[in-house]
Amino acid sequence: MPKALSRREALAVLAGTVAAVFGTIFGLLQLAEFSRHAGELKMEGEIIKLAEPKSRGVVSVEEAVGRRRSRRSYTNDPVLLSDISQLCWAAQGVTEVANRLRAAPSAGALYPIELFLVVGNSDLEAGIYHYRSTDHTLETVKRGEYRNQLREASLGQEWVGNGALDFVITGVYDRTIAKYGERGRERYVPMEAGCVAENLYLQAEALGLGTVSVGAFHDDRVREVISAPGQYVPLFVMPMGHIR
Fold it and tell me: Which residues contact 86 (CB under 8 A, 6 or more apart)?
């Protein structure tokens, strides 16, 4: 006969079971929330499969950290789709499929960050794209040249319009607030956006590209340029280009 559990052991088992049940329920609610917000994005329908990310490069982490600078001057050379793929992965790519973990840390693994790309000078057609971490693809939001509109929304900062493309890091605060309350809004989402931005900095250096983090912009106008719903709060604009 199995040994009877003590009262403390029984309570521990019960607590673990309750936690597992609530974890499952919360996970399902989180997935539903992701789907609801994704459905609000108005896409043109084209899905672009990105190249498999590289896990080993010619520049070490230490070198990238040592070389990292905020760079505002770029050449006219295009940033190719292969480099865009690597940048997206470094920012928000899935690094562990089983637990849906990503390249940047997230409080409670809730992942409120959504990436948009404003592409102008690339072998990828000019337009607005949304990065889907789950399958490492780009969704076409709309086609056309929008870098100058983004520059105007960013208080006329010329480097926003001069980069080959711009990353716009947005946050969907509700995903984190649902678990952590207002601390999610005040602390956790901004912390996560900063981690994503630094990953972009380091990956850019490793690829021979330059970027700068821009925080001075009109939120509503940036959101309008990228055609994002109201729940998507712009947190960073990061132009990207070859270093001049």
Answer: 51, 53, 54, 203, 207
Tokens of 198: 């630094």
Smallest CA-to-CA distance from 133 within 196, 43, 178, 194 is with: 196
Alpha-helical regions (H) of the chain: 7-40, 61-67, 81-92, 147-153, 158-162, 173-180, 182-183, 189-206, 219-226
What mean pLDDT comes out for the span 167-195?
98
**Number of Cβ atoms within 10 Å of the Cβ of 126:** 15
Residue 22: its pLDDT value, please? 41
- The rounded distance, in Å, linking the Cα atoms of 235 and 217 is 9
End-to-end CA separation in angstroms for the chain: 76
* CA angle in degrees (0–180, nearest 5) for 94-239-190: 55
Average pLDDT over every residue of 133-158: 98
For the chain, what is the mean pLDDT? 89
How many residues in total does the chain contain? 244
Strand 165-172 with 232-242, pairing: antiparallel
User: Would you state the structure tokens that stand for residue 193, as one six-digit string?
Assistant: 């956006």
